[in-house]
Fold this protein.
Amino acid sequence: MKKFKEIKPEELEFNPFRLIGKDWMLITAGTEEKFNTMTASWGSVGILWNKPAVTIYVRPTRYTYEFVEKYDEFTISFFSEEYRSALNFCGSKSGRDYDKALETGLTPVALGSSVGFEQSHLALLCKKMYFQDMDSTNFLDQGAEKFYPTKDYHRIYTGEILKVFTE
């Protein structure tokens, strides 16, 4: 099993536009025995209430939503390009129908009270600190509505970064 090195959030050095928007990430919640993960390319990293934080977006129709709702902690994990097909699978197939770890060959590992993956080069363990449902009446960018043809607006979660795991 791979041994992660733990660093402080303020030691992170990365381009969030590339890492989140181009490389993508897996959002995971649950326990090693029962968890789900999904691919995401929307999110942010910063500071909220003087704490290092991430913001993720999960549609209520996604199976992962049930796990993020149920558990206090979640992870976001980042991978090298060689895992692009695994990320494609995790973003296009439901954990209700597939064992994503088995199908992709990703190896789940306990990170705090949540789950990450041995193959990731970076994983952030986060504790939920805020959520809010998107309300389309607040969209200032009228082009945003095109992302919601079925009106399945995201729930926004902000989590405190508790631990950072690197290779």
Notes: The helical segments are 16-22, 63-70, 84-92, 100-104. Residues 5-166 form a domain with the Pnp Oxidase; Chain A fold (CATH 2.30.110.10). DSSP finds four helices and ten strands in the chain. The first strand starts at residue 5 and ends at 7.
